[in-house]
Amino acid sequence: xxxxSLTPEQExxxxxxxxxxRTEMAPRAAACDKEGRFPEEIYRKAWELGLMNLxxxxxxxGSGLSVxxxxxxxxxxxxxxxxxxxxxxxxxxxxxxxxxGATPEQKRRWLAPFCAEYHLASFCLTEPGGGxxxxxxxxxxxxxxxxxxxxxxxxxxxxxxxxxxxxxxxxTDPSLRAKGIVAFVVPGDxxxxxxxxxxxxxxxxxxxxGTIRFEDVRVPAAQRLGGEGEGFSIAxxxxxxxxxxxxxxxxxxxxxxxxxxxxYSLERKSFGKPISEHQAIQIKxxxxxxMVSAARLLTWKAAWTIDRGERGTLDSSIAKCVAxxxxxxxxxxxxxxFGGYGYMKEYPVEKLLRDAKLTQIYEGANEIQRIxxxxxxxxxxx
Amino acid sequence: xxxxVLLKPVPEGESRLRVSAxxxxxxxxxxxxxxxxxxxxxxxxxxxxxxxxxxSTVRAVSFGPARCEEILRAAIALGCDAATWVEGPxxxxxxxxxxxxxxxxxxxxxxxSLILAGKQAGDxxxxxxxxxxxxxxxxxxxxxxLDLRAGPDxxxxxxxxxxEAGTERWECPLPCVIGLQQAWNxxxxxxxxxxxxxxxxxxxxxxxxxxxxxxGAESRPTNRPEAFAxxxxxxxxxxxEFKTPDDAAEQLVRALREEAxxxx
Lengths: 382, 264
Ligand SMILES: Cc1cc2nc3c(=O)[nH]c(=O)nc-3n(C[C@H](O)[C@H](O)[C@H](O)COP(=O)(O)OP(=O)(O)OC[C@H]3O[C@@H](n4cnc5c(N)ncnc54)[C@H](O)[C@@H]3O)c2cc1C
Prior knowledge:
The complex is a heterodimer of chains A (382) and B (264). Chain A is of the alpha+beta class and 382 residues long. Chain A contains 10 helices and 10 strands. Chain A has helices at residues 8-35, 40-48, 67-80, 82-101, 104-116, 231-267, 279-307, 313-338, 349-359, 366-379; strands at residues 121-124, 140-144, 147-158, 165-171, 181-187, 193-198, 209-220, 224-225, 269-270, 273-274. In chain A, the strands form 3 sheets. In chain A, strands 1-4-5-8 form a 4-stranded mixed sheet. With 264 residues, chain B is α/β, with parallel strands linked by helices. Chain B has helices spanning 38-52, 68-78, 90-93, 96-107, 129-137, 192-200, 208-215, 245-259, and strands at residues 2-6, 10-11, 18-19, 26-27, 33-34, 57-64, 82-87, 114-118, 141-150, 156-162, 167-173, 177-180, 204-206. In chain B, helix 2 packs across helix 6, helix 4 packs across helix 5 and helix 4 packs across helix 7. Chain A binds chain B through residues 8-9, 12-13, 16, 19-20, 48-51, 58, 63-64, and chain B through 70, 73-74, 77, 189-193, 195-196, 198-199. The structure holds flavin-adenine dinucleotide (FAD). Residues 90, 122-126, 130-132, 156-158, 201, 204, 209, 358, 361-365, 367-368, 371 of chain A line the site of flavin-adenine dinucleotide (FAD).
């Protein structure tokens, strides 16, 4: 029963995302990249169309899509602009801990009003002292009566400068490592939250990334997700859900690079013929097409696994890693095919390389994905 | 108001079109059909009228083979309340008169107060169906319409018509058939939750056997396409190599005058 055809419903979701990407995002992508502008009007429109809280069940006001359906949409969006896509899907990342760890009462309280209007949320795990070693995080959660007091700093937080809700991971005792971590929901206007400046980034410049300092932020225990010590598992299971759409994001960037390069190769002439007739260029294009296909199929496979109710750690690590490595190489090859023009900001392909690079780093750097892959793999032989 | 919108599935703009093996028509196998162009404006207009006159309903209607389903669902996703698929074979869908008769037969019992359509279809742009439906139903018909509003008494309609000479303003009693201009009203985009809901919506179906029985001999297409040819491939573009903008302009003017003979 293996079947790669999309249902009419999936095609219509893809059509919606494609139309939005090409008419709203693409025309502004270059300017937002150049100016490092955060195009809130586009994010608002994405929310209006239901393209924002894709993973939140419809009973809480989200779109309630399967991971595969999310991937179809994310690939289309990323085809137009990786950075805008990162900001559009950051809500999925930030809200997933609530979906996984909250009580029904907490879900009603935090998700429904949030999704009913345009709001941004941020996922606060990474700290200046380290991202990959999440169990080593240092932000402290100190119990004080019915409250916790949060103190510490998070960095590289997508949409952090604009978010009205945070999911925050902190520790009651750093020496407990993973076992000491607790997850919280924190409203953006809680006293003691200090937002740092918008970082000046290599790529994804339409997205906004910043530091969030928690200076004795008082959080009622009712805003804790799960029990003390469950935070690490919530964070890891969140990333198991959201890593696959990053594979789709990388695939969208790679597909855009391949399309630009293939079209250009038919137009550009050297030695009296289109460069597409030189075998060296054909081989490059063939390799690019192979990488794009592999990225997409591994992403779909991981999504399919998760949608069947499996945790999908192995499949999603492989998909995210292969898709992001592919995106970087395909974007690199696209620049090569464009020659000198590819190096110029006036042409669209150098942005793709800068945008692709991030997909190897965030939501678990690829080194970590390989560690996870090897661990899951070896477990099957032990 | 009971508003009916007549919609035709047309090939997606980016489709790669081929001629069929018999050389008479386009080969529509594997082509994706969409709700597009004038028809999008018609749906938008229907929804605007509905929003301005609470209690109104909008029913999308399409005649033809199974490909109608996708555009009817698209219309529901945009906000139409109901949809009817008037089933018909592809050959019948090629003859605008059969299309109009079948649509009129399906619409007649519905008590339509207004029938909207694109002023012409987005693919063949013939523009015959709205007027022929009106003729069949014995009601007035206007094409090239924009800026449409319900009249003050609720029993008429006010609108403008764009003509070569200028803009006409009209008032017309209901029911009537209106063919709309394209894109003047900035058609909305369907929202994701409505797309999901539209997948589950029921679509009423009028079977072709029923329509054919009602129409008798009139159900048979009288037009038969003879031959179909795609436009000849365009000759390659000519790139002008230049040193200064003045030089580029001079060469361009020379090429337009002497080679393309665009002006003497
Ligand atoms: C634009 C952007 C947006 C981001 N958005 C968010 C967000 O919304 N929320 C959030 O919480 N975080 C976010 N991040 C943070 C991101 O997830 C981290 O940068 C990432 O997890 C890596 O952590 P680090 O930067 O601290 O690198 P480090 O952990 O210091 O790693 C440095 C290098 O060492 C490698 N390395 C580390 N440990 C090992 C090991 N055991 N074996 C081999 N190699 C290793 C890493 O792979 C990397 O190459 C974002 C980052 C960026 C750049």
